[in-house]
Amino acid sequence: MPGPFSIPTPEALNSGISLLVAFGLGTLIGAERQYRQRTAGLRTAVLVAVGASAFVDLGMRLTGGEGATRTVAYVISGIGFLGAGVIMKEGMNVRGLNTAATLWCSAAVGAFAGADLPLEACFVTVAVLAGNTLLRPLVNLIDRIPIDEAATEATYEVQVTVSADVAGLARDLLVERLEEADYPVAGTEVEERGEEVVDVVATLTATAVQSKDLDAVVADLEKRPEVRHATWTVQTGD
């Protein structure tokens, strides 16, 4: 049997090179995330890349290309759970999607490295870094463009605040006014605000509206004696 200080086999050396490639490329990706103070920074990106490389390399060592293929499938699904851990919902805002996507790409880099495709791993790394850096000015430029609500696909809701005992009447009135303005209602919901006050919320089927139309509907609703307050909101799609 070979001793503890025997010469490493070519397979072991190949595994070591794959891990080094994954470590180096994961460091490049993670350094950019760490610089921007993201939730998942340098160490996380490196560990994801190295872990993916190790698992894919192990699959290849055990059962060849078939084992690597199965391992890649498990890596893809497994990294999804890890990515979900960095996504946070704060009210109507969702944070961490870009970081989760970056971790997913780090796993892809590691998988390429573990499958003995270092050049492809470098290509993916360059693409990830370009997406996180070079595209930032374009994102900022697009964000500064005023939103054309008539051309933006979104979810529109009209809400009225009324006494709980007239919630049914308010719902009928809300639906009637919106349909008169040619904005059919997809559904309504009553949300309690207290013991005696509720919000009646109508969701429109339209994904684009004229803001002046909804302003007119809201103004008309607020003239009704049973309506304490009326407003409308828009939530842009993903």
TrEMBL record:
All copies of domain MgtC-like C-terminal, residue ranges: 156-232
Broad class of where this protein is predominantly found: membrane
Protein's membrane topology: Multi-pass membrane protein
Subcellular location: Cell inner membrane; Cell membrane
Entry keyword set: Cell inner membrane, Cell membrane, Membrane, Transmembrane, Transmembrane helix
InterPro entries the UniProt entry points to: MgtC-like_C, MgtC/SapB/SrpB/YhiD_fam, MgtC_SapB_SrpB_YhiD_N
Domain MgtC/SapB/SrpB/YhiD N-terminal: 19-140
UniProt signal peptide: none
Membrane-spanning segments: 12-30, 42-60, 72-88
Superkingdom of source: Bacteria
Family to which this protein belongs: Belongs to the MgtC/SapB family.
Biological function: Virulence factor required for growth in low Mg(2+) medium and for intramacrophage survival. May be involved in regulating membrane potential by activating Na(+)/K(+)-ATPase.
Name of the protein this chain belongs to: Protein MgtC
Lineage, uppermost ranks: Bacteria, Pseudomonadati, Pseudomonadota, Alphaproteobacteria, Hyphomicrobiales
